[in-house]
């Protein structure tokens, strides 16, 4: 068994320290601007962590970037696929249409669009947003409460949309794959006047096909257009609109039983097994519009204002199966179904000013900003009048008749608002030492229009941030950072009341160094997270609450600690590579293992080799150690397990001409059977078996 150890972080630190000596021998004098990230993406600066325009190397947190080239190479069609490439990020597919993310032992709830924080909702699922929308995805590990306010100390996922550029160019791609999957996508950019001061870009995709899960089908449409305007020499405005229409069939709500009635493992069920019926679906319509305005002053300062409106609609007929079937007869499962309809509107806005200032004959940077997130969700749940007959689950094919539903809905109406103001500065203490200080004051307000007893409001939330970066030479930075966290949660207890917010702190220290003329970046970090009131499923209740969720209890005194190592960039002119290893150990207040459904060890490898100008091929691989979940199964008396496993994906592309190319992708090359999730409702969802996709691309 592969067993990574602390030697990896020792190796990274050794490499970093070695580069100090190397740089001194070379007499390097010029300032370093970090340009390295996943698979060679060159990034001049990053604002996802602190808002300040800092290079990746001068940011006192761990950052990974998945760029457009990686998205194309490995056929990453949605956000979940893209984020799964990032170091230390664990992606769980728990249903046919729902994903969950975690890092450093904690769930990821911080999503941003172009740096603008939004409320993440797994039901409306930003996770399945089409990758055709994005130029790149930035992942900042650790807490980012300075910008987003409420949030987990896990990571922030910043989705950077495509912008209209000055050159006329574009591409069209056609893909066909396993399970009759067909995907068409295109992207076209052009200046709209002679000097390019007005420019436009349109992108679209159609994605249809079946799945490795019986009955499950997808039918997705994604449209996107954006226009950029130069309103003067120093002022730019961008507007855009996106619309997604998803019409899946055979959608699951929940997953498969992990155990038979006798307590034996049900992992011998077929990968294609489903709990859906032939009438279940989970439709989603998502429309968003945005506008941002940026003005650069002659003194180096920038003023930026942004606004985004998201309108989401959901309509589903869902079936949930629970229980543990008899191994021989398949009997013992019960079903409940409902019609679930929900609408969401989300308004997000931000304004900030950022720039340099002088103090004590040295230049520093300052950012002052404020943001608002205002979400309104309404829902109607029509439950079936009687339970659905399941019969022999071992012969389940989803052909059960559709039940009769109640005429009266269980209605939910809630409003969630967060307002915050923040200030941060990068102080240049010496030529080699910088100090990042910041603070945010927030107000959070949750209102339940149906049950006022569920209301929650807190003002004066204080979120401090501090970071220290020491650069003995331009190619090396050694850093530490600290911040506190505050995270309201939607989890409810057995009395249908929301749990109190999660509170805690996050501490990180690390080193970053560049090699090979800044083409290769080596990073290593250690971290410690402490949290109170973490939601865990209440083991004494197995039936859902009126809104379809399950009751939780709050756990105090949890902590996660560990380290991460990442090496990424251009090793040679023809070879790009990325290696990462993340180790996280989570414990509760008694020192017992906690959140064991997340891997303690996570390894990711990627490599792309240009054999010649026409042919390139690549591999990406993922390894994680055993995960488990205690006190589940019949009478909550068993332990669910997923043994350690490797997943390997491969690709190859051949350019027939400068404009026309063909590509082949093979995922799960060795056809590994594994659970992608074992904790959601204490059920299991199998990952996809081996699958193949062929595509052609015309670029102009």
Short structural summary:
The protein is mostly beta strands and 700 residues long. It has 4 helices and 36 strands.
Task: Count every beta strand, where a strand is a DSSP E run of 2 or more residues.
Answer: 36
Cα shape: globular
Separation, N- and C-terminal Cα atoms: 48 Å
Helix content: under 10%
Q: In terms of quaternary structure, what is this? A: single chain
Radius of gyration: 25 Å
Unreliable spans are: 1-42
* Alpha-beta content class: mainly beta
| Largest sheet report | 22 strands, antiparallel, barrel
Strand content: over 45%
Average pLDDT for all residues: 89
Helix count equals 4
Structure description:
The chain is mainly beta and 700 residues long. It is built from four helices and 36 strands. It is 5% helix and 55% strand. It has a 22-stranded antiparallel β-barrel. It has a five-stranded mixed β-sheet with strand order 1-7-8-5-6. A hairpin with a 6-residue loop joins strand 11 (198-210) and strand 12 (217-232).
């Amino acid at each position: 068994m592969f067993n990574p150890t602390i030697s990896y972080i020792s190796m990274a630190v050794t490499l970093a320290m070695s580069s100090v000596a190397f740089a001194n021998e070379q007499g390097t004098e010029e300032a370093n601007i970090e340009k390295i990230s996943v698979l060679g993406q060159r990034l001049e600066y990053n604002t996802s962590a602190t808002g300040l325009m800092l290079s990746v190397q001068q940011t006192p947190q761990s950052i990974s970037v998945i760029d457009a080239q990686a998205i194309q190479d490995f056929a990453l069609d949605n956000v979940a696929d893209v984020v799964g490439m990032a170091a230390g990020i664990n992606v769980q597919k728990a249903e046919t249409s729902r994903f969950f993310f975690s890092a450093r032992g904690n769930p990821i709830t911080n999503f941003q669009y172009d740096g603008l924080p939004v409320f993440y909702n797994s039901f409306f699922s930003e996770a399945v947003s089409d990758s055709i929308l994005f130029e790149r995805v930035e992942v900042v590990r650790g807490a980012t409460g300075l910008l987003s306010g409420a949030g987990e100390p896990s990571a922030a996922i910043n989705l950077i949309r495509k912008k209209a550029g000055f050159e006329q160019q574009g591409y069209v791609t056609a893909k066909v794959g396993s399970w009759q999957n067909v995907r068409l996508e295109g992207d076209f950019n052009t200046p709209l006047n002679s000097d390019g001061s007005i420019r436009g870009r349109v992108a679209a995709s159609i994605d249809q096909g079946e799945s490795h899960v019986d009955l499950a089908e997808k039918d997705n449409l994604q449209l996107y257009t954006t226009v950029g305007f130069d309103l003067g020499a120093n002022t730019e405005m961008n507007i855009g609109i996106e619309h997604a229409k998803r019409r899946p069939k055979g959608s699951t709500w929940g997953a498969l039983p992990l155990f038979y009635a006798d307590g034996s493992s049900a992992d011998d069920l077929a990968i294609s097994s489903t709990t859906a019926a032939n009438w279940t679906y989970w439709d989603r319509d998502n429309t968003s519009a945005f506008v941002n305005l940026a003005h650069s002053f002659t003194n180096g300062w920038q003023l930026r204002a942004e606004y985004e409106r998201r309108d989401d609609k959901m309509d589903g007929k869902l079936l949930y199966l629970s229980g543990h079937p008899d191994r021989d007869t398949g009997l013992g499962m019960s079903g409940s179904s409902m019609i679930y309809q929900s609408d969401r509107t989300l308004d997000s806005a931000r304004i900030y000013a950022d720039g340099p200032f002088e103090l004590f004959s040295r230049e520093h940077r300052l950012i002052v900003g404020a943001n608002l997130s205002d979400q309104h969700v309404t829902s109607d749940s029509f439950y079936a009048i009687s339970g659905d007959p399941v019969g022999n689950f071992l012969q389940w094919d989803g052909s059960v008749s559709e039940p009769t539903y109640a005429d009266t809905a269980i209605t939910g109406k809630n409003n969630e608002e967060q307002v915050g103001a923040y200030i941060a500065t990068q102080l240049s203490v010496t030529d080699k030492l910088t100090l990042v200080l910041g603070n945010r004051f927030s107000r959070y307000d949750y209102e339940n229009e149906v049950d006022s007893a569920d209301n929650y409001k807190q003002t004066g939330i204080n979120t401090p941030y501090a970071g220290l970066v020491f650069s003995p030479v331009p190619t090396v930075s050694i850093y530490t950072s600290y911040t506190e966290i505050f995270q309201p949660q939607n989890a409810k207890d057995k009395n249908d009341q929301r749990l109190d917010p999660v509170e805690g702190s996050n501490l990180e220290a690390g080193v970053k160094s560049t090699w090979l003329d800044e083409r290769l970046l080596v990073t290593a970090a250690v971290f410690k997270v402490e949290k109170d009131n973490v939601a865990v499923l209440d083991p004494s209740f197995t039936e859902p609450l009126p809104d379809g969720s399950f009751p939780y209890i709050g756990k105090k005194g949890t902590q996660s600690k560990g380290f991460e190592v990442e090496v990424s960039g251009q090793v040679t002119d023809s070879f790009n590579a990325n290696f990462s290893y993340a180790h996280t150990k989570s414990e509760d207040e008694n020192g017992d293992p906690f959140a064991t459904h997340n891997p303690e060890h996570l390894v990711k490898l990627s490599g792309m080799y240009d054999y010649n100008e026409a042919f390139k091929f690549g591999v990406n691989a993922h390894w994680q150690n055993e995960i488990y979940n205690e006190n589940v199964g019949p009478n909550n008396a068993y332990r669910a397990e997923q043994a350690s496993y490797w997943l390997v994906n491969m690709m190859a592309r051949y350019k027939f001409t400068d404009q026309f190319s063909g590509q082949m992708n093979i995922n799960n090359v060795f056809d590994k059977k594994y659970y992608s999730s074992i904790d959601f409702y204490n059920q299991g969802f199998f990952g996809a078996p081996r699958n193949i996709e062929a595509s052609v691309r015309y670029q102009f």
